[in-house]
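Changelog-adjacent note: as of this version, every example in the card shows the full chain rather than a window. The one below runs 247 residues end to end.
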Amino acid sequence: MGIVDTIAAKLECKKITLLVGGAAAVVGIAIALKQRPAKHGKTRAASVGKQAATNLDSKEGVLSILQEMASSQSACRQQLKELAAETQSKSLSLSQACARYTQMGVSDPLAIHKLSMIELNRALSEHEEDPAVQQAIATLMGSPPTGVTATQASQALTIQKLADIHNFMLAEFEKLAACSDKGSRDGKAVTFAAQAVVAGKTEAKFKVSPEDVEAAMLAQQGALACSDEFSSINLKLQQAMAKLAGS
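Full-length structure tokens:
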């Protein structure tokens, strides 16, 4: 089993953590890894105009993009945290949160290099056995660079409490997915804004920070991965996020 398949197999529980912790940049790569095409699907014509700028045919080019994504992820976490606080303090709607997303100028390395997730996924498939690429993906899929520290609040979060929190999140995401005016046709903007709105409401209701929830989930990831209830919640979360993004 290659690294892409291995990561894909572990994403079901991890993607819930991403929604809470704010690693929004990884959600896209997670979806792409799950839906990777066959390697033979690559054509020379598809990469024309991309190689000069990013050279995804080389290991170095792939590593460069992954490193940029990891760097932007740290900034993305902080921006999401700030927007979550603002949505709660100012009672921002999803449409208003989307407008703030645009003003904040959230970095997207793939957009900057004019690359799609499909193209990146294809490149990862080509270099999935390379140890350096494996390490870069692990870094991108992991916790924040500074680590996730267990707190008194995180240690008090039982499996049932985490289930309650995520059921609340699911209900909020489904409400937002049903909104007629999402404020943008950009799936990334809507997804980011929705995460901020839900994170703000979740923290206000349960009196725990996204970092507390993420630390608790990482500490109990084995039990969560075996939980049928969490699997069901995660599937519904993915469906709600897909609807928000316009899939």
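Structural remarks: The mean pLDDT is 76.
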